[in-house]
Amino acid sequence: MADQKPTPRQQLIQMITSYWTAQSIHVAAKLKLADLLKDGPKAATQLAQATKTQPQALYRLLRALSSVEIFSEDEQGRFHLTPMAELLLDVHGSMYAVAIMMGDEHYRSWGDLLHSVQTGKPAFDHIYGKPVFDWLSEHTEQAKIFDAAMTGFHGPETQAMIDAYDYTGINTLVDVGGGNGTVLIEVLKKNPAMKAILYDLPGVIDRAKKDLESAGVAARCQTIAGSFFESAPPGGDAYQMRHIIHDWTDEQCHTILSHIRKVIPKHGKLLVIEMVIKLRNEPQPAKWLDLNMLVLPGGRERTEAEYREMYAKAGFRLERVVPTPTEVSVIEGRPV
Ligand SMILES: C[S@@+](CC[C@H](N)C(=O)[O-])C[C@H]1O[C@@H](n2cnc3c(N)ncnc32)[C@H](O)[C@@H]1O
User: What structural domains and CATH numbers belong to the chain?
Assistant: First the structure.
């Protein structure tokens, strides 16, 4: 029966081979197949010509992807976009960059997961010879993909977060490791009197400037290039970090929080936006993102108790955890 629950064997086979689908999506993104179909359906031979690929092999890729509703094949053998394929268009906020990034450095690093489990160290460093953010700062194309992938992957969290968390009363918000400014842009649009500081590594700040300009918030948003391991910029009454803390070890997080603690005013707020790990067997994407953190930057996802302890060590009190309709919560802290 079609709606019968898969057997444990079927479930396991599906999981063991799930990278077949992932890599097929990656190749479809690399070849920009979705963009080639946006003006109408095409046969595999036409697509093969446009992508300089082998027609039969490309047809087989499209057929397999159509079997899971990424593209669909009509009776004339032409391939069409589907709602999932549309998400692979190379446009702002799509999953295009996520599919590119996951199939390149992430895939290679996950291939060495055993190294991370044996040593507790990032497989990325083992393969690429240096930490991921150092590597990205030397690889401009991949760094642009990374920034765009962050928007694609975490994009829906932004609106959910600013709906769930009330920023009223914050005069200057510092986004520490704010990346391409996607979060700040939305917060500033929603809070017209607010000012902000975007703080990130030099190359990232250079790329973010034009996004702040085109979003019309550059006049209210100062940009500062620097490392959160060296210092945090003074002048904010709230310090926000989305998907920063989970990138790093407890010791490194302590350094970051201590720098913020030095500059945050008494009435200031610390806003860490992360997934909070639920106990034991509860299914949760955060438990997989946690492994991604182990393999790539060497960080981890944490439980509420672990955040509470980390805050206390750095001179903050965990005030409350504000859930959002997405996976992330706002973990609010106050200096003590
Ligand atoms: C996972 S991304 C999150 C970006 C952004 N907060 C968001 O939610 O879209 C991590 C960010 O940390 C930045 N970063 C890494 N190392 C840094 C450092 N030492 N100092 C400042 N920023 C850093 C990266 O450039 C990147 O923008």
Answer: 8-90 (1.10.10.10), 150-335 (3.40.50.150)
